[in-house]
From TrEMBL:
Annotated spans, Disordered: 378-404, 545-577
Record-annotated Metalloprotease TldD/E C-terminal domain positions: 280-539
Protein name: Peptidase U62, modulator of DNA gyrase
Signal peptide location: none
GO molecular-function term, one example from the UniProt record: metallopeptidase activity
Biased composition, class Basic and acidic residues, residue ranges: 559-570
Lineage: Bacteria, Pseudomonadati, Myxococcota, Polyangia, Nannocystales
GO terms under cellular component: cytosol
PANTHER family named among the record's database cross-references: METALLOPROTEASE TLDD, UNCHARACTERIZED PROTEIN TLDD AND PMBA
Organism for this UniProt entry: Plesiocystis pacifica SIR-1
Family of the protein in this entry: Belongs to the peptidase U62 family.
GO annotation (BP), single: proteolysis
Amino acid sequence: MPAPAKSDALLEAMRAELERSLAGLRVPGSPRPYYLLYSLRRTEELVLQAAHGSLLRRRHRTRNHLGADVRVGSHAFDNVMDGGLDDEAEERESADWLVAPDDLEPMALRCALWKLTQLKFDEAIADYYDHRKAMVAEYLRDEVASFTREAPTRHLEALDTAPLPIERWAAELVELSKVFLDHPEVYDPELSIRADRIHRWQTDTEGARVRTCDLWLEFEVRGWVLTEDGVYVEAARSVPTRSVEALPGPEGMRAELDAVLAELAELRDHSSSPGAFIGPALVSGQAASTIFHEALGHRLEGNRLVARGETRTFAHKIGERVLPEGLSVFDDPTLERHGDQALWGSYRVDDEAVPAQRAQLIDDGVLVGFLRSRTPLPAHALRPTDSQKREQPRSNGHGRTAGTQRAMARMGNLIVEGDPARAKTQAELEAELVALAKAQGRRHALVIHRIRAGETSTDSYDFQVFKGELAHVERLDVETGARERVRDLELIGTPLSALHKIVGFGGVPGIDHGYCWAESGSVPVGGVSPALLLSEVELQQASRTGFHEPLLPPPFADDGSRGRRGGLRERGRRKRR
């Protein structure tokens, strides 16, 4: 659709206030601003949730938020220290002045920017002198220049303002959710559609003029069952898209719902894991993508290489082998799809007004680069050809923020590719898995199909570990070939050790998506990876609290017998607890 008439007027208003601020913000004896960036985000948020034939939630709102990056001093030395990781922007006074006027009237917008810029300027002056103090009081080993020089970006997209089909979606969810009336054994069921549509305007003192439009959509089915040993276990399916047309219709939604009901039945009939595990594992592409995201991706974010509180796991490993031969890794936000699936981490211009670019990170197992924002990298994190140049390599378009925090280098679409000549079939990987377990004298190996969520720690105060919550894992008896689904397990590991234990890869690539949290907030990301064979993984027992069944069944399933009936499995006499 064509852009609203106000779009250009908004950029003009932002540019005018930007020029006025750059010229007028002066404090005798203090550094002047040398760079300013303004951003405006208009976010349309939708949440629809249904269960038992009822619409539980209908939340639809639009919010307008401002952003301002004020830098004083020079490109060589300014107010930003530690790559901006410790800014704690949400705790500052300026965080209370980020709301833009609802009607986006240009003069009201300029007034809001004027107030925000004054506060940001005051904070920048204070930060500048704190940075100077640190230069005297500490030995900053990885101190680098403060900000790269970039060519101005001109990128203006049409803004989609078509109404979302809320009424149709709500009706479809309500009708489909009646299925849960036949499954009282499913606790807290939910069918949901979530949407975020963001219109973004950016301009800076280097001449950037950016206007973008993005839509993220997700259909999700979720539910819980109570197992015989008193543990609530969850099953979920989701379908992420980037367009209204790609969201599944009633038949596609029903297929996802049936898959969740089937999985809940399987989970209810399986016991908890017998305990912690160590041994070989075959990890599907979706789960492998999560491992790469947590163990590798966050540690290749360039801002972490200059922050005092970070461990910089890979900072001195440029040119060294960090993965097996045949595996390469890159991050490419310009990729919108992989096969027939949309990628959630796609964008055209980052939050520092730099065009999105493919960043090669690992080539045939050798580390060759990092995700870069406009924060320069230390010399030891550059390839020899780069470090010999007079100018610091520029940003590769990965400066991202959720809006409030300072932008930093973040993942977009992290893609792991395997050399087809070295890739193995699923059957070959499973045969090698069994052989590994037998060679290690182990009775069991694991097949990990899905990881629900992951987390990691990169700061120097904590242990360098990552963790993945397993959604679907099977224990394989290597003698009999029997497979048993086990639950209540978490994958744990240290990054270098985990990556070193990859001994094979192949199969159909798996795709992952979600929101990634870090110091610059929550941003949508995507990931692609082939299946991995690891010679050793460690799993720990997840913390689980025991519960008893409710004393009464849900009202729609009460037949007066004081027992629960359900479609997943019929129960006989209720057990005493």
